[in-house]
Design goal:
Layout (H helix, E strand, L loop, with lengths): L1 H31 L13 H4 L11 E6 L6 H10 L8 E2 L6 E2 L1 E2 L2 E2 L1 E2 L14 H16 L6 E8 L2 H13 L10 E2 L2 E2 L18 H6 L8 H6 L14 H18 L2 E4 L3 H12 L13 H5 L4 H10 L1 H29 L12 H9 L8 H18 L4 H13 L1
The chain binds 2-acetamido-2-deoxy-beta-D-glucopyranose (NAG) (4 copies).
Length: 403
């Protein structure tokens, strides 16, 4: 009898435990599905603002970089393959653009400088979600469990737009982007704003006046789930399309493991390092885009650019708010743990690797000379002013190991 009684007690415990767990799961479910509000003063959930993934410790993690044109992605992409302070982050051969980024034989980075444009030139969120897993299986010749961590850079829409205009003016087109959506390539479906090979020499007014110019609201479109509007073929009224795209882009940005803001390199680096528990050997650089910065824009043009990029301006405001929520949260946690002061510029910097990265810029890069000159002058300044603070370096290293 006592044996049965004991067993019955265990049953009771199990039942109570089961009910309690169900209740908890239900509560979590309710909390997660509470209607989201999208106004700018919206509260972000803890999950939106506090994310940490130890990419070194878990082979399932694969970073997927959504590289939006003219957001500083080339430099950032090089940082990822060349300057992460981890054991053999990537194997790079000099003269080769792409590096072999594997950890225990498993690829941990899906990006231009590792896997190449495996899902198409500047593939967007929609294309990557349709393509990455299949591609990874192919490249690794292995079907395994992976956890994809999406990352991207978002930039001030005016600066980005002017930069794309200047780039187009010099002859760039990205017409080879496949624009895959729901299994179909829309590359040849979309009308071009120019006749002939490219749009070389285009004026600003002509550029923004083309209503189907893919530069317009590029960031929103490239971060949204385009399936929601039936891809590039939508019959919905414009206001509805706009609304769906913007809300989708915001949602996807919130779900990203990390995104940086091109205007805030120091903060972006810090956020990246804490999010993924890694350090960079070369600090993020603010590379002045002299051409775009110097362009003098009339107020009429400014107004028109705003109108043509309304979604991107709204998205950027939202991104900034979310970014600084994440940054401040992670900064607070970090300093509570380490007792260190925020000295990002003076922490680990390795000029050798920076130089290597800069020498790597090929001749097909846009604006390459301006960038090189810019960064090399910065490098000289740094050599003069920067001494690695050994005390901080040691402390950071120890912290990393025990964290
Ligand atoms: C990349 O490195 C891994 C591990 O060292 C190796 O197995 C693989 O063959 C390499 N791939 C290429 C394309 O070099
Ligand atoms: C994108 O939206 C479509 C349509 O609602 C949905 O079926 C699909 O799962 C979404 N894609 C992703 C990756 O969430
Ligand atoms: C910088 O990186 C290079 C190559 O990895 C290494 O040989 C050198 O010791 C590093 N310098 C510093 C100051 O850490
Ligand atoms: C970039 O521009 C800013 C503002 O014009 C200037 O203060 C900074 O020194 C420039 N950076 C470089 C590397 O030239």
């Amino acid at each position: 009898m006592t044996f049965r009684g004991g067993k019955w007690k265990i049953y009771k415990l199990v039942i109570v435990f089961f009910i309690f767990t169900t209740f908890c799961l239900f509560a979590v479910y309710l909390l997660q599905n509470k209607p989201a509000s999208f106004d700018l003063t919206a509260e972000f959930s803890n999950e939106d603002t506090s994310r940490q993934f130890k990419i070194l410790q878990n082979n399932e993690f694969v970073l997927v970089f959504v590289h939006i044109q003219k957001t500083g992605g080339s430099y950032f992409g090089r940082q990822l393959v060349k300057s992460l302070d981890m054991k053999k982050p990537c194997k790079c051969k000099s003269g080769r653009k792409r590096c072999n980024c594997t950890r225990d034989g498993k690829i941990w980075l899906f990006s231009r400088y590792s896997t190449g444009w495996a899902c198409g030139l500047h593939a967007d969120w929609t294309e990557l979600h349709e393509c990455v897993n299949e591609k990874m299986n192919k490249i690794e010749k292995d079907v395994r469990k992976r956890s994809y961590l999406y990352i991207t850079n978002v930039r001030d829409p005016l600066k980005r737009y002017l930069s794309e205009w200047k780039h187009t003016q010099r002859g760039a087109t990205w017409k080879d982007s496949s624009l895959l959506c729901d299994g179909r390539e829309y590359k040849d479906f979309i009308q071009k704003c120019y006749e002939g090979e490219n749009w070389m020499g285009v004026g600003l007014e002509e550029f923004y006046s083309c209503s189907y110019n893919l530069a317009n609201n590029r960031q929103t479109r490239m971060l949204a789930n385009l399936s929601l509007i039936n891809c590039y073929n939508s019959k919905l009224p414009k206001s509805e399309i706009d609304n769906i795209l913007l809300e989708s882009a915001k949602k996807n940005l919130r779900a990203m493991a990390y995104f940086g803001l091109t205007e805030y390199q120091i903060e972006s680096q810090f956020l990246f390092e804490r999010t993924f528990n890694v350090k960079f050997l070369v600090n993020f650089l603010t590379i002045n885009n002299s051409r775009a910065d110097r362009a003098e824009i009339s107020s009429k043009d400014l107004e028109a650019i705003h109108e043509a990029n309304e979604l991107d301006f709204k998205l950027y405001d939202y991104a900034k708010e979310l970014f600084f929520k994440r940054f401040n949260q992670i900064k607070k946690d970090y300093f509570m743990k380490t007792g260190l002061k925020f000295k990002p510029i003076k922490s680990i910097i390795n000029n050798t690797i920076l130089e290597e990265m800069l020498n790597d810029y090929g001749s097909d890069e846009d604006d390459v000379n301006a960038k090189k000159k810019n960064a090399l002058s910065l490098l000289k300044q740094m050599k003069r002013h920067l001494k690695v603070d050994k005390h901080i370096k040691k402390k950071l290293k120890n912290f990393q190991e025990t964290d």
